[in-house]
Amino acid sequence: MRALTWHGKRDVRVDTVPDPTIQDDDDIIIKVTTTGLCGSDLHLYEVLGPFLDPGDILGHEPMGIVEEVGPKVTALKPGDRVVIPFNISCGTCFMCDQGLHSQCETTQVHEHNSGASLFGYTKLYGQVPGGQAQYLRVPFGNKLPIRVPDGPSDDRFVYLSDVLPTAWQAVEYAAIPPGGSVAVLGLGPIGDMSARIAAHRGAKTVIGIDLVPERLERARRRGVHTLDLKECGDNLTDAVRDLTGGRGPDAVIDAVGMEAHGSRVAAAAQGMTAVLPDALASAMIKRAGIDRLSALYTAIDLVRRGGTISISGVYGGAADPMPLLTMFDKQLQVRMGQANVRRWVDDILPLLTDGDPLGVDDFATHRLPLEQAPDAYEMFQKKRDGAVKVLFTP
Fold first, then answer.
1. Which stretches of the chain score pLDDT less than 50?
2. DSSP code per residue over 292-356
3. CB atoms within 10 A of CB 284
């Protein structure tokens, strides 16, 4: 089969690799019909190379048609249409029973003290072959896949793999009071969808902050108050407070993470890992890594006293300096973590089968053959051509 594989920093290629096979009795094999390019994939493209091997298959946002099932799979049959959550959860352990599927005790990666395994996402999360491929082996066939109806296009359902539950959890964790206010930092796929969900769930004031004109315009068309970071500069806090009664929003969602602009020291530290031997680079990331924290610092500054910060952007540093005095003084609540995909499916699925209130049908900005994935990664990283969400057709 053809699959998108990692070969080095900013070097991904579509190669011919062996087809996946049934390995456990409750495995399924799906033929991937649509698979997404996620902002988290850029961390593999740029920073997390020490935890990858050449040939690793990337991608964690797939959906498709069941091709084959193991002998113990009773919930699905060949021909069923399914979406695959990005975190690999058994559905039966203590953590899964708590709705913490991203902490699944069956698939935790103890070698790296990490949570649940993820499709296509480094040794830190199990080094499981990913979904930017023509076929995908999926474990826990009775519990993990999300069965979806035939009829609507893949665009209606593919975001159940990651974007929708990640954004839904970001809004849930933000704890926006009814009729309250929220500022969303970063209007990439997660930030854009978080703004849509916040408005749908009753936030009166939704503020979107970014520096890419196409992203700002896209959010503005859906009624979001947008602020251009390049225009606001040092006056961003004042601009946000002007929209929120002078005190700041009830909540801030950080949908940026380690890819934030700013901090030359952190950027240099991240870049250094690309030229070090893997053993040294991986140790540096896990023990002394620091992130570009400008988005998180901005969130702490913007949110009102007693407010909530919800972090959905991925951070990878172990030595990040946090302004604990300010956070304590402002009495802030902070919630974060990988999305517990399966936890939110029942809340989200009715919004996909009864109309399209979140605008998923036209959420993608680019639909490309998988063979064009290397160019798409570069385009997405450099924020060219209005790229917000890219879907591949394997």
1. 260-263, 265-269, 272-273, 275-276, 280-281, 284, 288
2. B-HHHHHHHHHSPTT-EEEE-S----SS----HHHHHHTT-EEEE-S--HHHHHHHHTHHHHS--
3. 18
Instruction: Specify the DSSP element, H or E, that contains 191.
Output: helix 189-200
Question: 30 has which bridge partners?
Answer: 66, 136
**Contact residues for 35 (Cβ-Cβ < 8 A; gap 6+):** 59, 61, 62, 63, 131, 132, 133, 158, 370, 391, 392, 394
pLDDT in tens, 13-57: 999 999 999 999 999 999 999 999 999 999 899 878 888 999 999
Is 50 buried (19+), middle (13-18) or exposed (0-12) by CB count in 10 A? Answer: buried
pLDDT value at position 24?
A: 98
Nearest to 283 by CA among 50, 126, 47: 50
Radius of gyration of the chain (CA): 20
Give yes or no for a contact between 188 and 364, defined as CB atoms under 8 angstroms apart: no
Spatial separation of the C-alpha atoms in residues 276 and 260, rounded to whole Å: 23
Read off the tokens for 285: 């990331």
- What is the predicted pLDDT for the residue at 322? 87
pTM, entire model: 0.92
Short-list 130, 128, 116, 105, CA closest to 4: 130
* Total number of residues shown for the chain: 394
Pairing of strands 366-369, 390-393: parallel
**Would strands 81-83 and 146-147 be described as parallel, antiparallel, or unpaired?**
antiparallel
